[in-house]
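Weekly puzzle thread! Below is a chain. First person to post its structure in token form gets bragging rights.
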Amino acid sequence: MTKLLLSIALVMLAGSHALAAERKPLEDVPTDDLTQDIQFTPKGAGDDHASLVWWIPTEFWESVMSRDTVSSAADKQAAIDALSGVSILGIVQADITQLGAFRFYPKQEIGDTMRVTYTPEGGDPITLTPMTELDSDLQIMLGTFRPILANAIGNMGSNLHFYVYDDEQAGSDRLLDPYKPGELKVELTKRNGDSIHGSVEMPLNSLFVPRKCPNGKDAHISWEYCPWSGEKL
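Winning reply:
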């Protein structure tokens, strides 16, 4: 299991029209492209603040582990089981002093003022609240990631805090489905009271086989028309 966690950590560093598009097998999803789709730097931070938000759906873990040739099948399945049914937000926030020192925010301080909402296409915003009780296996995995990230990227890794959200709805589909249109918005607050925000737009382009415009360029999964020719996709 330790080898599996290390393998995952290394890779971590490294509309209706969408529903009809062809999904990529998760083992064929480029990790860099997927990570770009699910990470963002909040807007409005200014030069005196650094922050990063990283939404981690289960598809990320499954994609990473599908390419792990070191860990056993049993270890990989155990990890997937521990991470299933939840979505995870990784957040780091820091004020930057005049001399360039980083003053990182503890998890409680971020959580006290952040607001997370999900808006499905054509629906009303749903406010999401982090889970307060986590499965013991999930706690072990999340606890292992931080020191690995700290060794790899220093203080930014050791101050990346994880917030876990229930992704299962009784009698219905999962709440945060990266294959369906919707927007996951995260609003954070700086210590001076300023609000900063950003969002992840779904469906995630990296999870689908690219459609082609007449000029041969890839069409984003959210496009209904080719921007160069105006042709309907």
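Puzzle host: Confirmed. Bonus trivia for everyone else. Residues 13-19 have pLDDT under 50 and may be disordered.
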